[in-house]
Task: structure prediction
Amino acid sequence: MPAVASSLSARVRRNEALSEIRTGEILTAATRVFGRKGYEATRAEDIAAAAGIAKGTLYLYFDSKEAIYSATVSRACRELRAELERHTAQVTGFQEKLRTALQVRLEYWTENQSIYRLLLTVGREQKHRRQTADFLRAAQRDYKTLLQDGVDAGEFACDDLEQLAWATLDLVRGASERRIDKLGESDPRQDALRITAFVLAQNTRRPSSRKR
Amino acid sequence: MPAVASSLSARVRRNEALSEIRTGEILTAATRVFGRKGYEATRAEDIAAAAGIAKGTLYLYFDSKEAIYSATVSRACRELRAELERHTAQVTGFQEKLRTALQVRLEYWTENQSIYRLLLTVGREQKHRRQTADFLRAAQRDYKTLLQDGVDAGEFACDDLEQLAWATLDLVRGASERRIDKLGESDPRQDALRITAFVLAQNTRRPSSRKR
Amino acid sequence: MPAVASSLSARVRRNEALSEIRTGEILTAATRVFGRKGYEATRAEDIAAAAGIAKGTLYLYFDSKEAIYSATVSRACRELRAELERHTAQVTGFQEKLRTALQVRLEYWTENQSIYRLLLTVGREQKHRRQTADFLRAAQRDYKTLLQDGVDAGEFACDDLEQLAWATLDLVRGASERRIDKLGESDPRQDALRITAFVLAQNTRRPSSRKR
Amino acid sequence: MPAVASSLSARVRRNEALSEIRTGEILTAATRVFGRKGYEATRAEDIAAAAGIAKGTLYLYFDSKEAIYSATVSRACRELRAELERHTAQVTGFQEKLRTALQVRLEYWTENQSIYRLLLTVGREQKHRRQTADFLRAAQRDYKTLLQDGVDAGEFACDDLEQLAWATLDLVRGASERRIDKLGESDPRQDALRITAFVLAQNTRRPSSRKR
DNA sequence: TATGAATGAGTTTTCATTCAT
DNA sequence: AATGAATGAAAACTCATTCAT
Result:
């Protein structure tokens, strides 16, 4: 009976879709709560409440609080990456590309402070450290690639791109944290300009070459 | 009977000294454990075990786990400050002063990774955030003062010392964390030189002025 | 879909009823255990065990051991009051009313020795003293009202009803305690008669007035 | 060497005397503290502090907190008994003897509220109950003996001295507690008169006999 | 599938008792 | 004998996880 089989599989597909939606809702709630309270101080029930479901339901979608945390971090990383790619795709020119990459990340953190905290503050406890380290390394690699493109295009020179990429990341983190902790009053755009200037100041390429 | 009185007060003094030593031992143990596991994940008993005493003994010296944490942070701050003052006192010259300040801090963190974690990673959980923010602001102020001295001495110029001081702190934090997380292989000395170069590259004072 | 709505509210109602039952079971268990061991010597787990539930379950229904104690006392007071009202409603005549009030209370304590201990023995510890004092004052007021009714009806006279009411309460307490402590062998009925006689012996109204 | 032996035994005797004094100081302190806070809420250290000695010293004189409590109660009983005998010895006449006995006890409780609480409030927890019961029975026996003396002297009659003695005790307890709990404002003397009147009102001996 | 009541292991803290000085 | 620092068993309370409905 193909009809039945097909109807079954349709139902299965539909259920899978629903399940994915529910999973997403839980992760969104978890991001908010973990970001606000930290991993240990967050109770499973807090996440459930924030997601508008019952405590027990969490365990239909995840094995443990730990698993929810892991999935939350993974999704946040994927999301940020997508956001970055979406915005930097159409931009051209080294300097502009750099500024845009910085600004997008700074804006992303400004709008998603929970995710920032989740990745870079909460996640610093012993058992989540590797996940965070991986995330940082990926960000640094991005900046390094960007700088390398500048070098390849003859618009930039620096004898230690590796370190400059890390430094760039450090400045982004610092600016983001100060905004979150309300320790300054600049906006993401200003910060991006400042950090761009800072990076460009490390250019060892003789400016004279620009003359004709 | 002065002999008795003096012997009594001698005993009292000795006990007070022992008590201070014990307090210090607990704080040292607490720094290690909090630094490794974070505040929430650290059990009072872990600290006791690390200090080689029984659980109950902790409470002879501190009122609560929270109080132990607070005291641990305070002591770490005092210690770092003393270290900084001890090393920078004899150095002269803006550039050399900057490099020394950076190197001392980088070395201190390298040798006291637990304290770094305690102050800048662990302490970022909700209820300890203010303590950490205060600590960061103090560090930034130090760098700003140092830069201002350079400006006053006519050796440096920059239109936003505030932001440059923050940036310097960001770079120190980044370098320290990477060493702790084993994400690079530079040593504190190299890092200090690199960060000094970064900062000096922001100098807007015309080098030509030095001629003549 | 009214069916669903009604079924939902039915479930809610059912759960609330179950919750009330559970609360009652805990209070019953608590009365027994507090009465036997006293407040301090009773561990939360004892109450849970007596109620046939787990330690943690207590805290789904009450905020603290202290709260359980308070609720236990309140319920006991309400219960005794209801019992008294139920039995004395239909009785008429001063002497008969007095005897009935005494007997009901004596029987209640005989059948609810835990509650007696809870209210009048356990509750005498420092921090629960006020609750007990209030309870005693209420009982004394009841007896005073009863005696005043006798005076108003011209069947009794006494120049200090206040003190006589307290004395009546003292005798009831004494008789109850001796029964609980097995220090005598009278039954509540005999005790009630005896105390009634005792009180009536304080009558200062000339019996001669009854003549004619 | 008898001299040595005698000097040794003298020292032993002296030490025993000192030890007894110290024991007494501890019991005095313990009475105060137990009476104020109850058995469970009293910490060994509270007693030591009240006695002006160190915590550990308690255990040179007593085996446990429990033992201190027991000894405290025993001593209080002995003390009260001595007080009663001292005051009632010289009084003659049934009515006067009764009044004196009551007044002495009421005054004793007024001046020694801690001991009252210790014996009749604190001591009502499970494990101390027998001690309290014994104490109450002894008091009742005293009153019964006193009343029997009145009967033997032809000054009083009552068909149930046993119960009347208990009732007397109940009234004394009630009056004492109200004074301690500040629930009334009579003084011991008034209370003694009132209770005496109460008791005498139970006299079944024909008053006509008093006529000549 | 969803629920939320129930569980009990695990956490902080207290305090009677011990014991080295 | 006296001390008081140290101990660790025990208590109140929390919360991740399970499971009957």
About this structure: Residues 43-45, 55-56, 58-59, 64-65 of chain B lie near DNA strand E (CB under 10 Å from a C1'). Chain B is about 75% helix and 0% strand.
